[in-house]
Amino acid sequence: MKLNKLFKSAGLVGSLALGSALSAVAPTAMADQEYLLTVTRPNQLHVIDMSTNKIARTCDIPGPFGSGAMAVSKDGTHAYVLGNNWEDIYGFDIRNCEMTFSAVQSTPTIQVKSFQSVAVSADGKELYTVQNPIKKHRDRFEVMEPRLAVFNIEDGLNAKPVRTFPVDRRITKIAATEKGEVILGGADVKAINPQNGETRVVTKLANWEKGPLWLPPDAFAMHSQGEQANEYIMPYITAKFDSEEWNFETAEWWWGMSRVDLATGEAERMETIPFEFIIFNFITDPRDSNILYGSFNTLSKHDISENKTLAVYEMPHTYYNLNISGDGKTIYVGGTSSDISIHDSDTLEKIGSIQLTGDMTTSDLRVATIRD
């Protein structure tokens, strides 16, 4: 009897000691997982593990290729892709390729196109797109007023808009702010409240007031890969003339941008660097807001605090867009063809590549971060 009590007591003490020892070991912290997302023809969403630069999975998108524009939920788990010739939107859980959302926007009598515009609210509950509808008559097409359409993501498959509001024409890429507005990239950069349709001007572009010596800017509203810096960039080209005669040969040509902080909805507009070569898209280094990278026929690095280009790397072919890792060390350059070129952000030297199954053409290159 005493022996039994002794053994039980010893076992209890041993268990307590073991438990104390285990509890003293700090749990291993899991790193955030980053995935690079893009779409290729004929119509696949690729989920690329950025820790290995390997394709983790490929999701089939219904219907024909759209534009490849997409938005990623704030928690990084879902991507919403514009497909079917710019008409439909499909949402996928990137962890398993389950399709969790769809919105077929056209009807037999109304055809709807969404040009690059797709965004998800900061809380992940709503999806936004700008619809450009036309009405089909027997003998003609009737161009209708464009509108911001708001969908409840929890409505799942075959979702319908729960609210619509009239917006300007020429709106392409959009983004949602943490304050609840939607940034609209058009002739000017505006913001709309998706609850009541109220709008405000964020940055004047086509209607700016820089005086008679400045050329109204030509903005490029195709891609916006600003998730690593939580921003929206609208790049533009302008010129400063030496007289009101507007001599284009002697003008100073500049790249500029409207950059919107998606945390606050506030923006800055500035001329950044001299216009020396074509750049389709800019991204900001998440470690330094003065450092920008651009892509097209070259990969370039710029310091906008000094208005100068720091480095240029000649690319083997055209790449429409680019993105960057969360630590700012690695740049991914894609779009156009079937390869993603990987570069060191300090030197711009190529350090790898990812071969895909088809051309990306106009597809976005987005980063989804799933936090532990």
UniProtKB/TrEMBL annotation:
Key words, A-Z: Signal
What residue range is the signal peptide?
Answer: 1-31
Top-level taxon: Bacteria
Q: Which NCBIfam families match?
A: QH_beta (TIGR03907)
What's the source species' lineage?
Bacteria, Pseudomonadati, Pseudomonadota, Gammaproteobacteria, Oceanospirillales
Protein name as annotated: Quinohemoprotein amine dehydrogenase, beta subunit
Keyword Signal in record: yes
Do you know which InterPro entries this protein is assigned to?
Host-pathogen_enzymatic-act (IPR051200), QH-AmDH_bsu (IPR023879), Quino_amine_DH_bsu (IPR011044), WD40/YVTN_repeat-like_dom_sf (IPR015943)
Q: In the UniProt record, does the keyword Signal occur?
A: yes
Q: Which organism is it from?
A: Marinobacterium sediminicola
